[in-house]
Design goal:
Strand 7, helix 7 and strand 8 (235-240) form a beta-alpha-beta unit. The protein is 39% helix and 16% strand. By secondary structure, the protein is α/β, with parallel strands linked by helices. Helix 3 crosses helix 4 (149-158). The radius of gyration is 20 Å and the shape is globular. The protein has an eight-stranded mixed beta sheet with strand order 1-2-4-3-5-6-7-8, sandwiched between helices. The chain starts with a helix and ends in a 5-residue tail after the last helix. The mean pLDDT is 90.
């Protein structure tokens, strides 16, 4: 009887061990995939606007557009997968008639160092401080798309922001990971090592927030956008029709909404 009990305990422990291995391995793989889009992604050959390289410090670089325009606004943009700073600026930078800046996180592209949650946050903060110094007195707007919504939301929670815009965002990395391997539900998120907790950043965000989604977005659907908006005390949630995940900021309907509702003084 005792031997049978020992065997049962052994089997249970072995099952637990395998479960832990699955969770830790899955998190490592998903994080590697997420980071690889920024580390290895190449510049688009055909861009709409010609990006201008910016050097934020000795180790941190990015790109900008309309850097010398005399306006009262600046946009800091954090792109999603495949949208490194060059690509983000090259595709979206000239649509808003104000300086438009994006950063390549530490450990990606020309920026030196190692990419992880802490250094991504540091990259965002240092981009903000660079812009605040270069454009003193101007209102700073923070935009994020897809994976980039995480750092956009973080930055708006630790720096003064005129308005935060999140297009196809998420509450935590679990919303992203569960689209591929649905195992990180509820408290099981504890196994996500570098979890980007937009739901927690929201608690420290005081600026107006606009959450944008689409009924045709199959990556981070409209239902997730409504739940994301609910994380904020007072956020507008705008769901468009027929826009695919990668097309928000190249769609005139979205750009017009941002100009009319977020940036009304530009009319």
């Amino acid at each position: 009887m005792r031997k049978k009990k020992v065997n049962i305990v052994y089997i249970i422990l072995k099952i637990i061990m395998y479960i832990l291995i699955v969770f830790f391995a899955t998190d490592t793989i998903m994080q590697h995939i997420s980071y690889s889009f920024y580390k290895g992604d190449r510049q688009l050959k055909d861009v709409i606007y010609e990006p201008e390289e910016i050097q934020i410090n000795d180790s941190l670089f990015g790109y900008g557009y309309d850097l010398n325009l005399k306006t009262d606004k600046v946009i800091l943009f954090f792109g999603g997968s495949m949208y490194i700073a060059y690509n983000s600026v090259g595709m979206y930078g000239g649509r808003y008639d104000c300086p438009f800046l994006s950063v390549d996180y530490y450990g990606t592209q020309k920026s030196k160092g190692k990419m992880n949650l802490k250094t991504m946050q540091k990259s965002a903060e240092e981009l903000y401080d660079y812009a605040a110094k270069k454009y003193p007195g101007r209102d700073i707007y923070i935009f994020g798309h897809s994976y980039g919504c995480g750092m956009a939301a973080y930055l708006a929670s630790v720096r003064e922001c005129k308005h935060l815009v999140l297009a196809s965002g998420y509450r935590t990395c679990a919303d992203l990971y569960n689209k591929i391997i649905p195992i990180f539900w509820g408290p099981l998120q504890v196994f996500i090592k570098n979890n980007i907790r937009v739901d927690q950043y929201a608690k420290n965000t005081t600026c107006p927030v606009a959450v944008i989604g689409s009924d045709s977005d199959t990556t981070l659907n409209a239902n997730i956008q409504h739940k994301l908006a609910d994380c904020y005390k007072d956020a507008e949630c705008k769901i468009f029709h027929g826009i695919k995940h990668e097309d928000y900021f190249v769609t005139d309907e979205v750009v017009d909404f941002v100009k009319d509702s977020i940036l009304p003084s530009w009319l």
